[in-house]
Design brief:
10-stranded mixed sheet; single chain; alpha+beta; 7-stranded mixed sheet; elongated
């Protein structure tokens, strides 16, 4: 087992090393005995499905490892790598199909008995060894029969798999796709398959969310994804349906699905009543009951949002209910229109990012009966759907809606400041000119009128007819002054 896993890890790391920044994918394909009809039925679409799945989810530059799994035994390691590549746009699907072409149901070593199945072992090997603890997405294609060592206590084995999903710290998100695929083999028959997607780490979760939103996966699997994890966050969605704007504020829906508030800088009571559509985002669960509370977080200030209803019951996926609310924006935290922030944003918008947080307390979830019936039809007699039973520890959840407050500052204050600055500049220029311009002074020395020129800040000597210094002329911005006047000298300003 260890040798095979090291081999799988080596192949994966080689592919991953050449795709820095891309999303690593590990696709695990079950080939234990219970899978026999999917391999032997000539009408089976099992292998084409895996090839199409790889072609849809693995993007150019992503690292891909394709591996078959059953249950690891001495001499028969599992998982076993079939392909390790850096994906490109044209050949990924065909290379996966080629790698699967000769894959058949596995047998136990030195025996004609068909191999058993260990779902948890395969997933753990992919996370800890193939991904090496790094973020990525593990895809598990299985017929939902978990029976290590031919253990008939599949319910207990399924609970172990269930614990791995819900308690595994490395697994951030899990969705499942129950698919109808009736097949008839030599020994067994089956009605369907399950495709699981395990997002490892926050980066893996974001990559999986991107795949679900992009629609690439939906081109291959039209079934709505059933959420297994998490059940304590992003459980509901708030979609603004109607807004009664207050004076000076207008609400709208932002391109990212969040809420946008356009505020006039003179608004002093931007308070609005918002009518939402509250949607359950946890297919296939119904929120049978929960207590609601909400708050806004903006500009470092948190405010309670008043809700028209604080209770929700029997909220099923796809059936939104109205929810009224009243919220107030943090006016005191908005920059004044004469502030530097406002001046910098003149003619555009000053943006304050924030969020609206909705908390569901005393949350009770229930798996929908329609989903139970579908699972029972696809996997008759299989207790594995128990993994969809919500853990008793999940009794609360949170949902976050982004909000941005956009304050629109006009050009008036900036123009006014510009005018003041221009006036000050002109005054400074005039003062500089006045300071540098020579001043004319008339001085009478011994009844002789003289005309002297001097710049402010200078001192000039005054001489009599014999050439002796009798005084000094001091010139300032405010006029002239005689200083150091010699005793008995006949010197005066003016005539």
């Amino acid at each position: 087992m260890r040798a095979a896993l090291r081999f799988l890890c080596t192949l994966f790391l080689l592919a991953f090393a050449s795709g820095a920044g891309a999303t690593p994918h590990v696709i695990l394909v079950q080939n234990s005995g219970w899978m026999e009809p999917f391999y032997s039925d000539p009408q089976s679409q099992f292998k084409p499905l895996v090839g199409a799945l790889a072609g849809a989810v693995v993007q150019p530059g992503d690292a891909l490892v394709l591996a078959a799994f059953n249950q690891s035994l001495p001499g028969a390691p599992s998982p076993k790598a079939l392909l390790s590549v850096k994906a490109d746009e044209k050949t990924t699907r065909s290379r996966v199909n080629a790698a699967l072409a000769n894959l058949d149901t596995a047998r136990k070593p030195n025996s004609s008995a068909l191999a058993d199945t260990d779902l948890g072992e395969a997933v753990q090997a992919a996370i800890t060894t193939a991904l090496g603890g790094k973020p990525g997405i593990v895809w598990l294609v299985t017929n939902n029969r978990n029976s290590p060592n031919n253990d008939q206590a599949t319910a207990a084995r399924n609970r172990e798999f269930y614990a791995l999903i819900h308690r595994g710290a490395a697994i951030d998100k899990v969705v499942a796709f129950p698919l109808k695929m009736p097949v008839q083999g030599k020994h067994y028959s089956a009605n369907g398959l399950m495709v699981y997607a395990f997002a490892v780490g926050k980066e893996g979760s974001r990559a999986l969310d991107g795949l679900l939103v992009s629609g690439r996966l939906a081109r291959v699997i039209t079934e709505q994804p059933a959420r297994l994890k998490p059940l304590d966050r992003d459980t509901v969605r708030l979609v603004p349906a109607q807004v009664e704007n207050a004076p000076g504020v207008a609400f709208s829906q932002a391109p990212n699905g969040g809420l946008r508030a356009d505020v006039d800088p003179d608004a002093r009571t931007p308070r609005a009543s918002i009518r939402w559509q509250l949607e359950n985002a946890m297919y296939p669960y119904t929120i049978t009951s929960a207590t609601l509370s909400a708050r806004s977080a903006l500009a470092g200030e948190e405010r309670k949002i008043e809700l028209a209803n604080t209770k929700v019951s029997n909220l099923a996926p796809g059936k939104p209910v109205p929810l009224g609310s009243t919220m107030q924006l943090p006016v005191a935290q908005l920059p004044d229109k004469w502030s530097m922030e406002a001046m910098k944003s003149a003619g555009s918008a000053y943006v304050l990012p924030g969020r609206i947080e909705l908390h569901l307390a005393n949350q009770r979830l229930e798996l929908s009966q329609a989903f139970r019936q579908r699972m029972a039809a696809l996997f008759p007699g299989d207790p594995l759907p128990d993994i969809f039973t919500p853990p008793a520890t999940v009794q609360a959840s949170d949902a976050v809606l982004p909000i941005e407050v956009r304050v629109h500052y006009g050009m008036g204050p900036l123009a006014a400041l510009g005018g003041i600055a221009a006036a000050l500049l002109a005054a400074a220029g005039a003062a500089a000119y006045a300071y540098g311009r020579p001043r004319v002074a008339q001085v009478t020395v011994e009844d002789e009128l003289r005309t002297m020129r001097a710049r402010p800040g200078t001192i000039q000597p005054i001489y009599d007819r014999t050439g002796a210094q009798v005084a000094q002329l001091k010139t300032t911005m405010f006029g002239h002054q005689l200083i150091d006047l010699r005793e008995g000298a006949q010197v005066r300003l003016g005539r």
